[in-house]
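To assess whether the prediction recovers the assembly geometry, we first specified each molecular entity separately, as shown.
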Amino acid sequence: DTEVTQTPKHLVMGMTNKKSLKCEQHMGHRAMYWYKQKAKKPPELMFVYSYEKLSINESVPSRFSPECPNSSLLNLHLHALQPEDSALYLCASSQGVAYTEAFFGQGTRLTVV
Amino acid sequence: KNEVEQSPQNLTAQEGEFITINCSYSVGISALHWLQQHPGGGIVSLFMLSSGKKKHGRLIATINIQEKHSSLHITASHPRDSAVYICAVRWDTGNQFYFGTGTSLTVIP
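The predicted structure of the complete assembly is given in tokenized form:
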């Protein structure tokens, strides 16, 4: 299994809602990443987890809260988002942060209304 | 500032044409990915390169470490190749990937 699975594929939420994005991999990878991609722009790194510990937070607003409950699962909790947070949220994993090959999920298309 | 630059930004080709997309980067890397993204879709990794050349079907990727440059070639292009192609690098000193701005390819039947 060489897949990174993200759910849901699409999400529409109001500015007062709380929702979560989920990312799962069963490749035994110990590094997992969240990226945000706006239309016609390259992905931008948000968070990196290494061995279930947050190792990089790229100055992301606190309305985005990552969580890595185990080595296979990465969540992104969303609360009080703004319409400008609407984007494609991509998850990726690699064997470790020093390993060079990454695997990407299909993304969650988020719309904040 | 570490940078990844791609060219061209947009490319339109006739079906069957040979296509080349270029990626240049500013400092040493440990790996370079070529990625494909269809409209509204997630990212598929086509190749990971640290040296030399790789081929998969109609796709060929090359990298020249000394010149800090990589190319993605598509032979006998097909309309289903229409997508955005993104170059992503992992710097020697970093533990994350940095992405180029992408090349939007349209192949016309």
